[in-house]
């Protein structure tokens, strides 16, 4: 791998599940050998509000939208049931490889009712740490990664994150409300938009990541009684496909609901700077505005907590510290994309409801995950 020129502007090499694209712009986002590191972009406004809204799914113990959760009562629960879905599985960046960018696993998952279901995703880099060189197996860039499951009506995104610049990471999220989907014989899909550069310039010629995924089930009554999970959209939207509209058919018997939203902006090169430029995300149901907030991250600096003497961050070893610390649209390198949960109780009357989602001033592209959970 040849050493890059260090420039202020970041670039991306490859994106999306549809395969790699050429590097755009002229920015070295990572370093090779003794040269300096990667750049990337992210940010988030009103982070405290977003965290407070991440209900039911996200941080362990967070509540759901739609009012206080009933007391599930005491339980005599035994040890959690642990299920390995992936165990050190290669997700390849080599085009034509059977494991190129997405791997699937069909597993038998426990049935029953559980007070908590936790998903843990362990990502392992194949990069040699600085000062390097990072090696032919290394993908040192900040890549999109997510876990999805097929549900009646379409796929649902259970977790999304951005990989570190050449580092390892472990993420855990609570997915208790989705336990009806995580039961019986089930197929899960894990995607990392890795790209192996045949020339070895942007990444290693055999670049990829190792991924492990597990589920932990704790016996007991869940805090909320889920009636239905309605997939809305999981994928990518841009100026040609926005605004997005969908009709939600809510079943009878619902008394409350939570609209779960993951959005992250991408496109680092001006003018398509949705990675580094705040863009209001506008969500409406039945003509009522639910939110018009830009999902800006202000805390990316925390993912370069200890810049070593050679300039490397502990969490993002091959990232340029200035890039790792930059604010971005809904994401930070090496962190999950935060779930925002909005109270949808006013819109759970049985029958159809009209939803729209738009990004004001979009120039790049947005990764979007939307679903509605309704409760009895």
Task: Provide the helix percentage.
Answer: under 10%
Structural class: mainly beta
Q: How much of the residues is beta strand, in percent?
A: 35-45%
For the sheet with most strands, the description reads: 4 strands, antiparallel
Q: Tell me, what's the shape?
A: globular
Instruction: Write out the strand line-up for the largest beta sheet, numbering strands in chain order.
Output: 1-8-3-6
Rg over CA atoms: 20 Å
* Multimeric status of the protein: single chain
* Span of the ends, CA to CA: 57 Å
Low-pLDDT parts are 1-75
Helix run count? 2
Please give the number of β-strands. Answer: 16
Mean pLDDT, nearest integer?
A: 83
Elements, N to C (H/E): HEEEEEEEEEEEEEHEEE
Strand-helix topology:
Layout: H1 47-53, E1 81-92, E2 102-109, E3 114-124, E4 144-151, E5 154-162, E6 169-174, E7 184-192, E8 208-219, E9 226-238, E10 244-250, E11 256-266, E12 281-285, E13 288-293, H2 321-324, E14 340-343, E15 351-359, E16 365-375
Antiparallel strand pairs: 1-8, 2-7, 3-6, 3-8, 4-5, 4-7, 9-16, 10-15, 11-14, 11-16, 12-13, 12-15
Structure explained in plain terms:
It is a single chain. By secondary structure, the chain is mostly beta strands. It is built from two helices and 16 strands. The radius of gyration is 20 Å and the shape is globular.
Short description:
With 376 residues, the protein is an all-beta fold.
């Amino acid at each position: 791998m040849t050493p890059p020129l260090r420039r202020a502007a970041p670039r991306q090499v490859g994106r999306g599940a549809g395969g790699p694209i050429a590097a755009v712009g002229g920015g070295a986002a990572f370093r090779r050998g003794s040269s300096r590191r990667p750049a990337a972009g992210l940010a988030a406004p009103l982070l405290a509000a977003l965290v407070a809204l991440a209900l039911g799914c996200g941080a362990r113990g967070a509540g759901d939208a739609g009012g206080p959760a009933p007391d599930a009562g005491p339980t005599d629960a035994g040890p959690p049931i642990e299920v390995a879905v992936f165990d050190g599985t290669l997700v390849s960046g080599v085009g034509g490889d059977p494991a190129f960018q997405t791997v699937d696993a069909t597993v038998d998952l426990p049935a029953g009712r559980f007070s908590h279901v936790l998903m843990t995703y362990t990502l392992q880099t194949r990069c040699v740490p600085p000062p390097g060189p990072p090696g032919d197996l290394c993908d040192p860039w900040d890549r999109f990664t997510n876990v999805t499951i097929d549900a009646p009506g379409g796929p649902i995104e259970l977790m999304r994150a951005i990989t570190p610049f050449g580092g390892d990471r472990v993420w855990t999220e609570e997915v208790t409300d989705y336990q009806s989907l995580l039961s019986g014989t089930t197929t899960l899909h894990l995607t990392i938009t890795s790209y192996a550069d045949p020339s070895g310039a942007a990444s290693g010629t055999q670049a990829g990541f190792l991924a492990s995924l597990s589920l932990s089930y704790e016996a007991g009554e869940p805090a909320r009684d889920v009636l239905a999970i309605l997939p809305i959209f999981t994928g990518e939207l841009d100026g040609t496909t926005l605004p997005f509209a969908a009709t939600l058919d809510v079943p009878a018997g619902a008394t409350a609901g939570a609209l779960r939203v993951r959005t992250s902006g991408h496109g680092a090169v001006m003018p398509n700077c949705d990675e580094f430029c705040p863009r209001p995300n506008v969500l409406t149901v039945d003509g009522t505005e639910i939110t018009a907030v830009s999902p800006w991250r202000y805390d990316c600096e925390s993912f370069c907590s200890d810049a070593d003497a050679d300039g490397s961050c502990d969490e993002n070893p091959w990232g340029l510290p200035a890039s790792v610390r930059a604010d971005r649209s809904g994401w930070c390198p090496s962190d999950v994309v935060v779930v925002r949960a909005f109270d949808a109780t006013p819109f759970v009357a049985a029958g159809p409801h009209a939803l729209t989602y738009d990004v004001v001033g979009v120039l790049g592209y947005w990764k979007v995950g939307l679903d509605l959970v309704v409760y009895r």
